[in-house]
Amino acid sequence: MEETAAFGVLGQRLGLQLHSTDVRIMAGLAARLTPLNVTPARATAIVYIALNAGCDQVTLGRALGINRASTMKAVDELEALGAIERRPGRDRRTNALHLTAAGETLRVRIEEATLEHDRDAFAALTEVERAEFGRLLAKLRRVGADGPALDANKEP
To answer: What is the CATH classification number for the domain harbouring 91?
Structure first.
C-alpha cells in the first residue's frame, strides 16, 4: 500500500505529501550533519552568518524564522562549538555575529554535505525535474502559504 493511501483523501493533498517528504528528507540531512555536530537549523545559521557577516541576533532570528529565545540558544551553541564569535554591534545593546576560522571550515563542510545530501535525496528526479521542482517551490514561497492565488497562466 502506498504511504499516502493510509490517509485516505488527506493522503492526496499536496501539503501532506510535501510535509511527509520533507520529514524524510530532513531526517536524512540531520543524519548527514550529525558528524559535524550541527543540526540542519544550526547549519543554516552558520551559512547565513557567513553570507551576512556582522548581522545581529534579531536579524538572524528573522531570517531563520525563530523566536528570540531560540535564536539566543542557537548563537550560544554555535559560539560554544567555536564556529562563531560575538563582536561589538552597531550599538551597546547588540552583538555582531562573525564566523571564526573554525566556523568557515565548518561552513565549507556543511555546504559539501548538503550538496551530497541533495544529490542522494533527489536522485529519483532527472536534472530537468529537479530544476522544475526548484522553480515550483520558489513560486510557492513567493506567494506564501495563505497568500493570493497566482494566475495559473502567468509566469511569476
So the answer is: 1.10.10.10
Q: Is 45 exposed, middle or buried (0-12, 13-18, 19+ CB in 10 A)?
A: buried
Q: Distances in Å between the alpha carbon of 80 and those of 37, 40, 77, 116, 141?
A: 11, 17, 5, 27, 33
pLDDT in tens, 31-77: 999 999 999 999 999 999 999 999 999 999 999 999 999 999 999 99
The pTM for the full model equals 0.82
Q: Three cell numbers at 145?
A: 502559504
125-147: per-residue pLDDT in tens?
999 999 999 999 999 988 865 55
Residue span of the structural domain in which 93 resides: 17-143
Residue 116 within a domain:
yes
For residues 115 and 106, the answer to whether their CB atoms sit within 8 Å is no
Q: Is the pLDDT of residue 94 over 90?
A: no
Please check whether residue 106 is in contact with residue 46, taking contact to mean a CB–CB distance below 8 angstroms: yes
- What is the maximal distance between C-alpha atoms in the chain? 60
Which residues lie below 8 Å from residue 110, measured CB to CB, with a gap of 6+?
33, 36, 38, 43, 46, 47
The domain tally of the chain equals 1
- Residues 125, 102: Cα–Cα separation, whole Å: 35
